[in-house]
Specification:
Helix 3 runs parallel beside helix 6 and helix 3 packs across helix 8. Strands 1-3-2-4-5 form a 5-stranded mixed β-sheet, sandwiched between helices. With 236 residues, the protein is α+β, with helices and mostly antiparallel strands. A hairpin with a 2-residue loop joins strand 4 and strand 5. Helices cover 46% and strands 10% of the residues. The termini are far apart. It is globular and about 50 Å long. Keywords: Signal. This is Thioredoxin-like fold domain-containing protein.
Length: 236
């Protein structure tokens, strides 16, 4: 017991010398809204996507349709770079940098559009997983994203490059989104928090029962049915 207390005291004393990393409490949301909100949304939905995840790409068009149809739901995209998708951190940071440089969630959504268009995801993922260096991946992303997003290539590059321990604001912001997911038990993509609670999807084939891994098979009507389920408790 005495040794344990001494260890805690030593850790506390060394606290000021430990590296400071951003963290979020459960109630603090990060990410980017899919559409601008002019009024209070009655529900919140956080959708965690990975730039190299094929299921995330498959889910994207339905998410865009849902965001356009349901202004009563604040749908925010959280990028969650999966550790086994080597190199996926860099496109996540690139889209975050683009949004911060333009101060616009719309730029972020457009960046994801470009990444998920045609063979772009496959091409950058292949470069990252086969033989591309960090510099190679950044070069490819700048060439792919700068012009469509209306951002000078040198400016985008400067806001993506990082050193060993830190980087530009986009580095910190991307890390915050990752930690927000981890603090809420997210471990795969796509994943969803509905009003702060992780759920696993629902579809008509299973009579509305939540089914893990069902996101890519859900049509727009399935997402809306899930949002319209009763969320309150009965009054007695």
């Amino acid at each position: 017991m005495k040794l344990g207390l001494l260890a805690l005291a030593a850790a506390a004393a060394a606290g000021d010398n430990l590296p400071q990393v951003p963290y979020h409490a459960r109630g603090a949301r990060t990410g980017f809204s899919m559409v601008p909100r002019s009024s209070y949304a009655s529900q919140t939905m956080d959708v965690f996507l990975d730039m190299f995840c094929e299921d995330s790409k498959a889910t994207w068009p339905t998410l865009k349709a849902l965001a356009a149809k349901r202004p009563d739901v604040d749908i925010r995209i959280q990028l969650f770079p999966l550790p086994y998708n080597f190199g996926t951190w860099i496109p996540a940071q690139a889209c975050t940098a683009a949004a911060l440089l333009t101060n616009s969630s719309a730029t972020f959504v457009k960046c994801v559009d470009v990444m998920y268009s045609g063979t772009n995801q496959h091409d950058v993922k292949t470069l990252a997983l086969v033989n591309g260096t960090t510099t190679d991946i950044i070069d490819a992303l700048v060439a792919l994203l700068a012009a469509p997003l209306g951002i000078p290539g040198d400016e985008l590059r400067k806001n993506v490059e990082s050193d060993m321990e830190s980087g530009p604001p986009s580095y910190t912001f991307t890390k915050r989104s990752l930690k927000y997911g981890q603090s809420n038990g997210i471990f795969a993509t796509p994943s969803v928090l509905l009003n702060g609670v992780q759920i696993y999807g629902a579809d008509h084939e299973h009579d509305g029962v939540h089914a893990e891994g069902g996101w890519i098979t859900m049509a727009l009507a399935d997402w809306e049915a899930m949002l319209d389920l009763p969320t309150g408790y009965p009054e007695f």
